[in-house]
């Protein structure tokens, strides 16, 4: 029996949750992300805002230009995570395997549970009904023979839609005259390469498979397969240990030229990375530093390390990398670990058996947090659990930027 896959995608998830919890926002152009006075982008927006041309990942200044009368709000990620947990609990009931793509999106393998297409339809409708009844939210659901087709189906009738694509022939008939960007993995740059050869529609890909293959190599061959409706990928549950890296970054509301302040911010980012790594028992074999300068030039630097997951080691290596780059005004800074592997694969070293090592590291951790507390008069140690949350982290970093010792604002601000 061929597989039957459901793709569930929430409709304007963050905005829908806020409108559910605050009925006065319903029917309004609601934009979730940064505020118009801040740097940042749109995380998502209501369908009323989309009528003005606003969309996800749009620069917030451009969104405000298009929709000056919109309602702008910061996201509440802790709330969205809890709603996401409830959603996936409902969806997973009907699947033998579930692949969570995001907080609000998942592939479900319902082959065994559904038995046939009529059974799949019943499951899809049940998911939509339970999501609406139990959580007060709408979702769009696609049912298809493959992951690519299921995702395409869920996007066909948004919002609150349902669509099915039973066969490869149905998939091809649906997309054959659409732009090449309709296909998975075909982004703006890939599309430009195809356009340069006169390949603009899916039909053109099907008619020139050799050219696409020569032009794009392995990716091109995959794109040709998709254009023909071929996709045998399985629904694969996500495992944190399969991640290639763990990182955290922040964008400043004003460019930062003081590299001592950047070193302080790296302390918090290092603790955030440590927290996530510890949550899943992961380590890395390298530290990476990411910088975006004020002129939008982006750079990254990395260094191989022994088994690494502690905030102390992450921060020390990140600072070394920071000291080796051009010292120009910085817009964004991030730090992470890479070459990830689980705890049970970490080889013990002599230092693992030396108690004084862990004691020294604990003292260094406490010293890092004390130094922050002395400079900013905040209880960093007592509030780390809150700082791990995205919104609180950004607020804390902005407070640090405004109150760094020696700045005009730190002298004039005592709140």
Entry keywords:
3 domains, 415 residues, 5-stranded antiparallel β-sheet, 17 helices, DNA polymerase, domain 1, disordered C terminus, Dna Ligase, domain 1, MutS, DNA mismatch repair protein, domain I, alpha+beta
Q: What would you note in describing this structure?
A:
By secondary structure, the chain is an alpha+beta fold. It has 3 domains: 64 residues, MutS, DNA mismatch repair protein, domain I; 56 residues, Orthogonal Bundle (DNA polymerase, domain 1); 173 residues, Dna Ligase, domain 1 (2-Layer Sandwich), CATH 3.30.1490. Helix content is 46%, strand content 20%. The protein has 17 helices and 13 strands. The strands form 3 sheets. Strands 5-6-1-7-8 form a 5-stranded mixed beta sheet. Strands 9, 10, 11, 12 and 13 form a 5-stranded antiparallel beta sheet that branches. Strands 3-2-4 form a 3-stranded mixed beta sheet. Helix 4 packs antiparallel against helix 6. The chain is globular and about 65 Å long. The C terminus is likely disordered.
User: Whole-number radius of gyration?
Assistant: 24 Å
* Overall 3D shape: globular
**DSSP helix count?**
17
How many strands in all?
13
Number of folding domains?
3
Q: Give the integer mean of the pLDDT values.
A: 90
Sequence of secondary-structure elements:
EHEEHHEHEEHHEHEHHHHEHEEHEEHHHH
Query: What is the beta-strand fraction?
Result: 15-25%
- The low-pLDDT segments are 344-357, 410-415
* Widest sheet, order of strands: 5-6-1-7-8
Structural class, from secondary structure content? alpha+beta
Percentage of helical residues? 40-55%
Let me know the CATH homologous superfamily of the largest domain. Answer: DNA polymerase, Y-family, little finger domain
CATH level 3 topology of the largest domain: Dna Ligase, domain 1
Largest sheet: 5 strands, mixed
CATH class of the largest domain: Alpha Beta
The CATH architecture of the largest domain can be named as 2-Layer Sandwich
Multimeric status of the protein: single chain
What's the end-to-end separation, in Å? Answer: 67 Å
